[in-house]
Amino acid sequence: MDDTLTGLLRPKGVAVIGASTTPGKIGHTVVKNLIESGYQGGIYPVNPSADEILGLKVYKSVLDIPERVDAAAITVPAKFVMDITKECGEKGVKGLIVITSGFSEVGKTKLEKELVEVANSYGMRVLGPNVVGTLSNSDDLNASFAPFLPLDGNASLVSQSGALLIAIDAITYTRRIGFDKLVSIGNMSDVNFADMVAWLNEDENTKCISLYIEGLKDGRRFINESAKATKPIVVLKAGVSEHGAAAAASHTGSLAGSQKVYGAAFQQAGAIQATDLSDLFDCTLALSLEPPMKGDNLLVITNGGGVGVLATDSAEKEGLPLKFAPETVQEEMKKHMPSFGSAKNPVDLTGMAGNDWYYDTTKFAFAHDWVDGLVVLYCETAMTNPMEIAKSIYKAIDETGIKDKPVTISFVGGERSDKAMQWLVENGIPAYNAPDLAVRAMGTLREYARLASMKSEPIKEVHNVNREKAREIISKVRADNRTGMTEIESKKVFNAYNLPVVKTEMAETEEQAVSLAEEIGYPVVLKIVSPDILHKSDAGGVKVDIKDEAGVRKAYQEILQNAKNYKSDANIHGIVIQEMAPWATETIIGSVNDPTFGATAMFGLGGIFVEVLKDVTFRVAPISEREASVMLNEIRGAPILEGTRGETPRDKNALAQVLSSYAYMITDLEDEVSESDANPVLVYEEGKGVKIVDARIILKEE
Ligand code: ADP
Ligand code: MG
Q: Are 178 and 168 in contact (CB under 8 A)?
């Protein structure tokens, strides 16, 4: 555990620099909050022109404080922050909570950078600037200007928005969702989400890590730290802008909106993505109270058909479609429920069900091995008392002694139901006011188990790559003052990474074209090679299925003519002759260099699937072969690879291997390559492999 961060977030003494005697000022509020939260460490207001604030002695400088100071909350104007930082460094402070704004968020990036440099040179970490502060129930610490500590609980939240953090603080009481720590992360000049995930993962009082993210700074590190974490992580990502898409030069570029790449990154990080603020709370509640759901068998118990149907629909949506329990389980179950009910799934206890039936059925079902997760639903009725039902369910669960299986609950009704649910939550069972939310919570617990089993896959090194060769080709293109590489140049780079490109040779004369065609063997394909023509077929620069010498001569001339007509001043390197690959399922593999995550790979089916339906999926590179297989399965058009309409299944193993090698290549060349694609990649039937017939690399601008 990072001790410096511990000093910052769980300090033994706090100085408030810029402490004020004037109520309402932030420098006053922070002192007041520290006192009111019951903080037991030393509280040291610092202000050169005051003697006492709220009964506490005021120091002229942090250097005058005789005791140990771990954290300094800074509220003085931005222009004074630098001097204060140095004094704090001299004092041996561990971390600065820079509440002051007026740094990078208003363009003062340099000042912010200097602040961090100076702080780090003393071994201090910086939270912020532009933060609300940090709160910790286990330390009775409210070192912020948020009015009070949140409802106590197991989750900890890090928020990039200060205003939202204050709002969430208040919501914890109305939603009855408890947090141990709330940390405002502000401009993230130093302490960022990756640091916080790593630290909270070690924090004894945090069971679930909740994050409100607007943008990450070091995407790769975030993925790595999150993948290493052993606690559930749930994120709400704000901002759905598809930045950069318009300027993208390749197909992949135009498809890779930041949101899609973020989505992929969160998946790789093993983090659950909440859909909205309300969902963030719902997921946090489930993840902070319940263990992961380790299998797909979800059982729903209900007293009402309607909520049962809603739960069934939701289960389908969550990827946990309800199955009937085996006959033997149903027979057993019938012994624990009213004879007129249904033991199928949902198990319907009917509106007649009272405390005893709820108790009996819940206890049997929760203890049964077939059940991986249990959702108990209740519709308020005139004849039953919600609180008694809640207590019956709680007792049933508790008596099984089972701790490694999740349960979620939904009561639908009025005030009495709300009270009963609040009681359940206080007793450690997540409860929601709608059946679909209880199922969604279970879906989250299942997703957590799935993600946990996927992450931290060791990435297989692709050996025998000819890195030098690839770099040499790139250097030549650079020497030619270009960023767009031709197909044959790109294919040579692909080749250096063992990617299966079709045999492709360059001809500079018609005669050469003929002899190369003979050498490769008919039928062949001829294509224009020009750095000025990146989309060759648009320019009439591709002729396929050429069967003889006469065809080669004709195609050679036609392509040259077409190219001139298309762009009279195009620089033409020549014409490539290549092996004509037999028809197969067309797919596309591509890459972008994402501003946050770096090299990112894309996969999709070719043709209309990518053009019209944008049916593609992303992963931050590198990716394991297993992860690549998951990508193949997660596009909507996935069944096509299984072989639809009487076709044989496609060679998904080979395709996953190629996708993984490709991701390796783009990671290895991340410093050079801006975008790339292999379009199309032809996929043959099982055992017959894949062939890349077209390749494109666009280098970064220097
Ligand atoms: P571009 O994408 O620049 O227009 P391509 O090289 O992808 O040019 O060629 C266009 C189309 O021609 C491909 O999508 C593919 O259907 C077909 N094609 C290209 N090269 C071959 C080849 N070697 N074997 C079989 N078909 C090919
Ligand atoms: Mg192409």
A: no
DSSP state of 293: P
* Arithmetic mean of pLDDT, 480-492: 97
Backbone angles phi, psi at 377, to 5 degrees: -110, 150
Q: Is 537 in the pocket of ligand 1 (CB under 6 A)?
A: yes
Distance CA 602, CA 607 (A): 15
Q: Kindly give the pairing relationship between strand 208-213 and strand 233-237.
A: parallel
Q: Is 185 in the pocket of ligand 1 (CB under 6 A)?
A: no
66 Cβ partners below 8 Å, 6+ apart? none
CB 402 within 8 A of CB 371: no
Q: Which amino acid is at 688?
A: K
Q: Return the H-helix or E-strand segment holding 333.
A: helix 327-334
pLDDT of residue 180 exceeding 70, the answer is yes
Q: If you average pLDDT over residues 625-635, what whole number do you get?
A: 93
d(CA 119, CA 114) in angstroms, rounded, equals 8
**Alpha carbon of 680 to ligand 1 centroid (Å):** 7
User: Distance between CA 373 and CA 534 in Å, rounded?
Assistant: 53
Distance of CA 168 to the CA centre of its chain: 21
What is the pLDDT at residue 244? 41
Q: Shortest CA distance to 307 belongs to which of 254, 213, 379, 256?
A: 379
Among 542, 576, 682, residue to substitute to test ligand 1 (most atoms within 8 Å of Cβ): 542
Judge whether 588 and 251 are in contact, CB under 8 Å.
Answer: yes
* Ligand 2 center from residue 304 Cα (angstroms): 56
Mean pLDDT value across residues 617-631: 93
Give the nearest ligand 1 atom to 536 CA.
3
pLDDT the model gives residue 462: 62
Average confidence score pLDDT of the chain: 94
pLDDT at 487 over 90: yes
A 10 A CB-CB count for 519 gives 11
Number of the ligand closest to the Cα of 544: 1
Q: Is the pLDDT of residue 461 over 80?
A: no
Percent of the chain, pLDDT > 70? Answer: 96
User: For every residue of 78-137, which 3-state class applies, written as one string?
Assistant: HHHHHHHHHHHHHHCCCEEEECCCCCHHHCCHHHHHHHHHHHHHCCCEEECCCCCEEEEH
Q: Are 593 and 675 in contact (CB under 8 A)?
A: yes
CA pair distance 101, 648, nearest whole angstrom: 62
Which strands make up the sheet holding 272-273, listed edge to edge? 141-144, 133-136, 179-184, 152-159, 208-213, 233-237, 272-273
Task: Specify the pLDDT at position 246.
Answer: 43
pLDDT at residue 247 is higher than 60:
no
The answer to whether 423 touches 387, Cβ cutoff 8 Å, is yes
For residue 423, with 0-12 CB atoms within 10 Å meaning exposed, 13-18 middle and 19 or more buried, which class applies? middle
Amino acid 381 reads T
Cβ 337 vs Cβ 343: under 8 Å: yes
Containing H/E element for 392? helix 386-400
Residues 530-572: pLDDT tens digits?
999 989 999 999 999 999 999 999 999 999 999 999 999 999 9
**Residue 611: predicted pLDDT:** 76
pLDDT digits (tens, 9 = 90+) for 272-312: 999 999 999 999 999 999 999 999 999 999 998 899 999 99
Give the residue carrying structure tokens 């043959």: 684
